[in-house]
Amino acid sequence: MRRPAWGLPVAGLLLIAAFAAYVLLGGDNQSDAAQAGDEPAIQNSAAVVRTDLVEVETFDGTLRPTDGDTIAAAHPGVITAIAQEDTVLAEGDQVYALDGTIVPLMLAPTDFYRDLSLGDESMTVEATRAGTVTGPPTTGTIVEQGDVLYTFEGEPVTVLYGDSLVYRDLYWPEPADSSTRSTLATDVQNSQSRSRLLDAITTAEERLSDTESDTPSNALLNAIDDLTRIEQAGGSDSEISRANQAVMAAQQADLDRIAAAEDGLEAARQALVDFDEVQVAAERDDQANETVPDTQPNLVGPDVLQLETALVAMGYDPDSDVEVDREFTAETAAMVERWQADLGVEVDGVVQARDVVFIPGPAQIVETIDSTGSVNPGASIATLSFGAELSGPDVVQLEQALDRLGFTADATMVVDDVFTPETRAALVDWQTETGQEPDGVLHVGDVVVVEAGVRVTAEIAAVGGQVSPGTPVLGVADVEQIVSFDLDAADQSLADEGDRATVVLPDNVELVGVVEEIATTATTAQDGSTTFAVTVRLDNPEAVGDLTEAPVDVELVGSSVSDVLAVPVSALIALSDGGYAIEADSGSGFRLVAAEPGFFADGLVEIDVAGVEVGDLVALP
């Protein structure tokens, strides 16, 4: 509710002042006053000043917490710890724990919409046969050429660098009289290899279709929602810019996923073309070598080329005997045997398709199966991240948070928009320190993202309770209280968003704030009055101390004038024939001087007067 501001002096005061002046002067004009002989002594006086006058309107307001919000679980599991009601959570604090892994608070303008790891591309490694995973991959591990990714039935599955699909076993076909492989066995293997290639094409087509149907992705939709929310809330230019960048990054991620699926389909189709070309060439060789029926053609293809390239790069051709081409020769087999001896597996010169995984380059394991156990063909074993370093506004906000928390990988991490090995090292250090999974990957949902610290207002979930994605866990509100008041429709001109306001606490402490929001929809009371809800955010919210809710005064600046002559309002004298005067003393005694009042504020009145200067005295009642 608005309180009355200074206005013109009330009629009774003016009449009394006029009567006193009339008696004092013995007449009703200034000339009569100048001729008066005996003037009563002036008891009270004040100096004429030159100042700025500001009209302040005061409203009844309320200091209160912000409207509450809800923190929801991002993953399924059992709540094993939870922040207690009235706890103030700062950046890095545990919000809750899920299956024993803490979920901490991170300050950032927008939620993370994608996993953050070393590469901007990914691939899924799938089981090629039914069996038991006896040694699962480890999330967060960096795998390079020659590393064992996981073990299957006790045998290692090894990573090599290459881009072609693995669709067949690779070996050197020795003469038929000493080989365990008959021509019939070779035909059967070739038939199975072609069948696997056709299956790979079907899988790639399904993956492309699924990717296209999942576009726009949830990450993009969430980024668009965040942008809309920030724009509607009147966010700053930098906040809107970051949200726009997040939308563009999510759009690009969708396009990249589609492009990767298209590339996968093209690679599968090309592998079939290459295979058929090899078979045609082999048939021609058979016809040309009819005099040598007991030999089989050497295996030829891009898969042989990438195998030879990888093993030579790893140092398994010390005498440079292998010609790195598309043909699997006896020298290639000897190189494979040296590699197998180092791996500790059967040394037979045969590279089975199920025992190797070709990846484009160094990669990070970002997701794995939960544990050892039986799997079927096509089951996901691990997701690998590789390629160019991730970049974007989400990387910036992660690095900024790590820097604030003091985790900078021994000051080697640069806060930019690129997820580097140093970023990963800083993330691992923080994860280790706080009891998270130290995998160097920030998964969506690993942290609770808010823009500022929060106070827990309610424990919605309980320790031991099962939650699913989206299940409410905690009720929270901003740590900082806000001030709200109702602005009369007639006073709308007094406040705009961004204006300064003064808040007077119950102990008369004055705090400065800014008008953060003015409702666009009016509220009409039963008496017919119309008001707009106004929110003021304090510049120094800590100054409220332990107050959580209290009545306050809100002062808004109305009209103002600058650099004017002013006197106390009580110095004005209303003349009987109209107009106003003041009793002024410029050094030779008090005299009545006509004055025209102007702006009223702070107990002073602006005057337009002749012959009176700053520092002159005016009589007060």
List the helices and strands and how they pair.
Layout: H1 11-25, H2 30-35, E1 44-47, E2 49-64, E3 69-72, E4 77-82, E5 88-89, E6 94-98, E7 101-107, E8 119-126, E9 131-135, E10 142-143, E11 148-152, E12 155-161, H3 183-213, H4 218-232, H5 237-288, H6 302-313, H7 330-343, E13 356-359, E14 363-368, E15 373-375, E16 380-389, H8 393-405, H9 421-434, E17 448-450, E18 454-459, E19 466-467, E20 472-478, E21 482-488, E22 500-504, E23 510-518, E24 523-524, E25 530-538, E26 550-568, E27 573-574, E28 580-585, E29 590-601, E30 604-609, E31 617-620
Helix pairs in contact: 3-5, 4-5
In short:
The protein is α+β, with helices and mostly antiparallel strands. Helices cover 28% and strands 31% of the residues.
What does this structure look like?
- This protein has 621 residues and is of the alpha+beta class.
- Among the domains are: 1-66 and 480-621, Elongation Factor Tu (Ef-tu), domain 3 (Beta Barrel); 182-285.
- It has helices spanning 11-25, 30-35, 183-213, 218-232, 237-288, 302-313, 330-343, 393-405, 421-434; strands at residues 44-47, 49-64, 69-72, 77-82, 88-89, 94-98, 101-107, 119-126, 131-135, 142-143, 148-152, 155-161, 356-359, 363-368, 373-375, 380-389, 448-450, 454-459, 466-467, 472-478, 482-488, 500-504, 510-518, 523-524, 530-538, 550-568, 573-574, 580-585, 590-601, 604-609, 617-620.
- The protein has a 6-stranded antiparallel beta barrel with strand order 2-21-25-23-22-26. The protein has a 5-stranded mixed sheet with strand order 17-7-6-4-19, covered by helices on one side.
- A hairpin with a 5-residue loop joins strand 27 (573-574) and strand 28 (580-585).
- Helix 4 packs antiparallel against helix 5.
- It is elongated, with a radius of gyration of 41 Å.
- The two termini are 33 Å apart.
- Residues 4-37 and 175-185 have low confidence and may be disordered.
